[in-house]
């Protein structure tokens, strides 16, 4: 159940944002916050995926979260300084990564569910066959 840690972190972050951020953010700060949210969501989706695959490590998750947010914010800041909306490129890349992770999470869960159904079907079939074979006493 360690794969739930990223999801719990996401809900804590949402709660903190609702408590401390009252109203819309002005201009460029809204762009930075949007990019930071996308970076965080990308990291959370990657953490959930890693947890489902059995590859989750908290140190990788935390450093990935921090570095993703800093890099995304830095690129958006650089774009503001050179008058090119680089936050759009960041949003595009992070959005693509989020959708990729979500599709892999969905595929993993669907495969796990289908495998469980197939095991149950095979168990029922084995039980039916065992019930049909008469016992032989020697």
Strand content: under 5%
* Beta-strand segment tally: 0
- Characterize the overall form: elongated
Give the SSE order as H and E letters: HHHH
In which range does the helix fraction lie?
A: over 70%
Low-confidence stretches: none
Q: Please outline the major beta sheet.
A: none
Instruction: Give the radius of gyration.
Output: 23 Å
The average pLDDT is 89
- Structural class computed from helices and strand pairing: mainly alpha
Q: Termini separation (Å)?
A: 50 Å
Oligomer state equals single chain
Please give the domain count. 1
Number of helical stretches of at least 4 residues: 4
Spell out the blueprint of helices and strands.
Elements: H1 4-20, H2 27-53, H3 58-81, H4 86-132
Helix pairs in contact: 1-2, 2-3, 2-4, 3-4
Pfam family, one: DUF1290
Protein name: Small basic family protein
Transmembrane segments: 27-48, 60-78, 84-104
């Amino acid at each position: 159940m360690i794969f739930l840690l990223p999801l719990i972190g996401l809900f804590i972050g949402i709660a903190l944002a609702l408590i401390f951020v009252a109203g819309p953010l002005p201009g460029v700060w809204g762009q930075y916050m949007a990019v930071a949210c996308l970076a965080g969501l990308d990291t959370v989706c990657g953490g959930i995926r890693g947890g489902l695959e059995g590859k989750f490590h908290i140190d990788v998750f935390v450093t990935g979260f921090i570095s993703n947010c800093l890099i995304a914010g830095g690129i958006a800041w650089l774009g503001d300084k050179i008058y090119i909306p680089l936050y759009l490129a960041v949003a595009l890349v992070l959005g693509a990564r989020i959708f990729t992770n979500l599709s892999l999470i969905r595929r993993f869960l669907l495969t796990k569910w289908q495998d469980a159904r197939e095991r149950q079907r095979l168990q029922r079939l084995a039980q039916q066959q065992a019930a049909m074979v008469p016992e032989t006493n020697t």
